[in-house]
Amino acid sequence: MKYEVSTWIQITMAIATEVASVTCLGIEVAIVVGGGNIFRGSSWAGSSGLDRSSADYIGMLATAINAIFLQAAMESIGIPTRVQTAFCMSEVAEPYIRRRAARHLAKGRVVIFAAGTGNPFFTTDTAAALCCAESK
Questions:
Q1: Would you state the pLDDT for residue 109?
Q2: Considering just the CA atoms, what is the radius of gyration of the chain in Å?
Q3: Distance from CA of residue 10 to its chain's centroid?
Q4: Helix (H) or strand (E) run with residue 114 in it
Q5: DSSP H stretches of helix in the chain
Q6: Which of the chain's termini has less CB crowding within 10 Å, N or C?
Q7: Are strands 30-32 and 81-85 parallel, antiparallel or unpaired?
Q8: Count of CB atoms situated within 10 Å of the CB of 135
Q9: Per-residue pLDDT tens for 83-126?
Q10: 8 A C-beta contact, residue 124 and residue 112
């Protein structure tokens, strides 16, 4: 689903505000973002001429856009945040390293995970399940 820019900003700020209210309670917060509002790989594969792997990688990039946007919104209201991605994007995010993510959480930072698992054919739901299992 595509949103107008003003709606995207409103939704993102609403999410940031909700997360801020939880972090103020001392709760560690990690978020796995999707990118379907920008690009949904499974919808484009095949019919558009894109192979499934390429479409999924474009979808992973869409998750990184959402993660950086959410990070900016959260930091604009004073919530320290880090973005970690499943593949290298060193200019805008850290690589996903489980122990580094745990350290950020322990320091009160929100961690936003982007790019799914870094592998085509897997949804961000899979990434969410993996992050949850690894953080126990």
A1: 97
A2: 15
A3: 17
A4: strand 110-114
A5: 5-23, 41-44, 52-76, 98-106, 124-134
A6: C
A7: unpaired
A8: 13
A9: 999 999 999 999 999 999 999 999 999 999 999 999 999 888 88
A10: no
